[in-house]
Amino acid sequence: MMVTTHVFAGLAVVAPVAYLLPELATPLAVGAVLGGLAPDFDLVFAHRRTFHFPVAGAAVAAPAVGLAVVVPSSATVALAAFAVAAWLHAVSDAVGSGPEMDPWNHRHERAVYDHVRGRWIRPRRWIRYDGAPEDAALATALAVPALLVFGGPIAVVVLVGVALSIVYAALRRRLVAWLPDWLE
Question: How many domains are contained in the chain?
C-alpha cells in the first residue's frame, strides 16, 4: 500500500480518541503520521524486513497504549499513536502485494517479514499493488475520519496526501518504466 494509506490508517485509528480528548489531538496526529511513515524508512535497507514488525510490533504497541491510558500526556499519547500506526502499517502490508517495484507481475511470495517466526508472510493481494486504484480509494476513505476530527495543518496535510495519492495511483504503473535498471 501507499505510504499515504498507512498514514491515513493511523490517523483513522486515533481520530476517535482525538475527538473525545481534543487537547491531545495534535500529539495523537503527529504520532500517527510519523508511525505510519516510519516503517518505510527501510526502503534503503531490506524493505519490509528491517523496520516492519507485523507480529512483534504488538508487543510494543500494547504497552505504549497502556501507558497512555494510565499516564495520559502529550508524550505518552504521541508514543502510543506512533507505535500503533507503525504496527498497523507492518500488519497491513500483508494485505497487499510484495515489495518489488512491479508487484503486478507477482514474482515474489513475500509481503512482510515476521521476525518472531523468522519467515516471510505471503501477500494476500487484496490491494493488488501500492498505487492501485483500490489503494487510492482506500486511502481516500481512510482520510475521512482525519478530515472530520483534525483541523488546521493536519487537515491540510491530509488533503495534500489525498491529492498525491490520486495522482500517484494514476501514474503508478508508468513510473516503473522511468526507473533506472539498478532500482528494479
Answer: 1
